[in-house]
Structures are given as C-alpha cells and as structure tokens.
Sequence to fold (140 residues):
Amino acid sequence: MIEIGNHGRTIIDSEVVDIEKKFNVIFPEEYRAFLLKFNGGTPEFCSIDIPGMEDSPTDVKVFFGIDRKYETSNIDWNIQLLNEFEFDIPLLPIASDSGGSIFCIECGSNNVVFLDMNESPCAVYEVAKTFEEFLSAIRE
Fold:
C-alpha cells in the first residue's frame, strides 16, 4: 500500500455510517478500511495515468476524509458539490488533483473514475476497476 501523510483524526465506523445514511450511499469495504485507517491525507507518491485523457497523467493531491481541517477535503462537502451536477449514476468523491478535478467511486460498480472538472461539460474517465487497483496505479 502507498504511504499516506497528513492523516485526519481517528474516526470510528459509526461516523462512516452517518455519512452513508445522510447521502444514501454505501462505501465499498476496501475504501471503508482505507478511510478508517487514514481518514484522508496526502499520498507519498501522487502521479497517476488517466486512460484516454489528453493531459494525462495527473496527480492525487489529497484523499478526502471526515471532519478534516479544510472543508474542501471533506467527503460530505464534495458529495454536496457533485450533487450540483447531473450524473447518470451516483458517485462517491474520494480524492482530488491539484487542478480541482475529482476522483470518485461509481456506486454500484465500484469503478474509480476521474471527473475532469476543467472541461465543459465535465468529462468522465475510467481509471480503475476497484479502489485497490486505483491505489496500485499511483506512482512517483
């Protein structure tokens, strides 16, 4: 597993359940375990290829968490942001790049996608089939 710095405070499972209930979403088990271990933070290695995207690769600047110091680093804040867009499927925001684009887990399939927020309309690129595969794709 990659190294994560700037962890959030320790959280408990009931805090994750509260977010799930509030936004009617279920966190995949591998992502839930990651969140409970780190509660967001910054990866040691941060470059990741985005298949099909012209400006690939990009970085993974920060993983979102619960009750983080900066509002924009919170899962719930990012869920509310994504609710302003009309996506065909529910998305769980998990991280962002330096340009303000967002990595999400597709609820149901558990694919990890990249939302290029700098394109209009927002472009969606599949990055990985699972959260674990996504973590494995992050490199120096």
